[in-house]
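ugh ok so i messed up the first submission bc i forgot one of the chains. this is the corrected input, ALL of the components this time, i swear. 439 residues overall. if the numbers dont match what u have on ur side tell me asap before i send this to the collaborators (the ones from the other lab, u know who)
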Amino acid sequence: MYPPKFGYVIPDTIDEAVSFLKEHEDAKPLAGGHSLIPMLKLRIIRPSYLVEIRRLKELQYVRKEGGYYQIGALTTHYDVVKAGIPLLSDTAARIADPQVRNVGTIGGSVAHSDPAADYQAALIVMDSSVVVYGPKGSRTVNFADFVKDVFTPDLKQGELITEIKVRDFSGYRWAYKKLERKAGDFAIVGVAVLAKKDGDKVTDLRIGLTAVSNKGVRAMEAEKVLIDRTPTEDLIERAAETVMKSIEPPSDLRASSEYRKRAAKVLTRRALTELLR
Amino acid sequence: MKVVGPEEKVKITLKVNGNVHEVEVEPRRLLVHVLRDLGYKSVRVGCDTSHCGACTVMLNGRSVKSCTVLAVEADGAEILTLEGLTKDGKLHPIQEAFTEHHALQCGYCTSGMIIQAYWLLNENANPSEEEIREGISGNLCRCTGYQNIVTAIKAAAQKMRA
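and heres the new structure output, hopefully the right one now
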């Protein structure tokens, strides 16, 4: 499979990239390319130009400041894994396979907004935000609002993601449970959980899911079942049941809606049991 | 800023196994095809969809699937293919271990598998069986059932640590 013909731009700065993208409506930024290049090969898209932002060093960093991690958009999944960020690093470690993680970037994944992307489950529970830079300067959007729909990020032509921000959940316990058809595949269902206990009591609980909707979802009703309570097997079962009832997953070639619902319940129960019991 | 038009070619430099190549490519050319055209035939096109890993090469110290990298993205990069592992006709310890432990049958996945093992052992000199299996999870082999590949990588790790 060969990609269609396109022009290629290597900008020296973010501003050059932004102004070229703004002036060329059908140009696309190229980060790690591990969603974009397959789409080109399948001829799903035919951009006039690719703007190679991949090598812009100023967008490759992980910093910790004021209780938040700031992650440059072009940080690879490999580097996110190495950064030791609660929940997010363990989630990144489950993306695809090592070679893909060596190249794919967190900003690229968020911009692609695949409803089954692993990051969606974690980011939706981490008080995350997305820093967007464009011709009119910089703006920050809550992650929950940034992903508007399937493959639909809140990005206008000429805008780029420059940073992902997540809260530092040190002091919490966490787990990312992923059910996949085969090694390296997208999730059939993915469940990310952050939990904090004080003595026997659950003081905070966050449950995020991927691949069950048009974007990552947070199961707040299910969280309430356990917050301020002492977790018992019964309560965990009830919380898992609540997750199942709160979602209406799509059916596709990976799994039926009904199967996804049940899988979400099982994965939630496993995560909660591991973290709370 | 460098702009290459849709009908234009671009001159790139690739350093493959220490050899410097200057080639003119269309921006849409994939790295795997350019490497094969340069004679590095160990780099294989398998699934062509970034699943199977037969096209795995080292690019600036990290293993990548060269069917999902544009050649122009690799401009100026250092690339290592299987051909580069053999030094003065002597096999690399990973290659030796693959031979000794019968870690291949048809051989199509082998070059990618060995390059991935090379990356894995750079990252982790003493991987557990589970870490080896995770480390080669992006490389598919339809013949061996992986058992002998895992054994070979474990043996190579031991040899390389000695």
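quick check: The mean pLDDT of chain A is 97. that seems consistent at least. The two ends of chain A are 50 Å apart (CA to CA).
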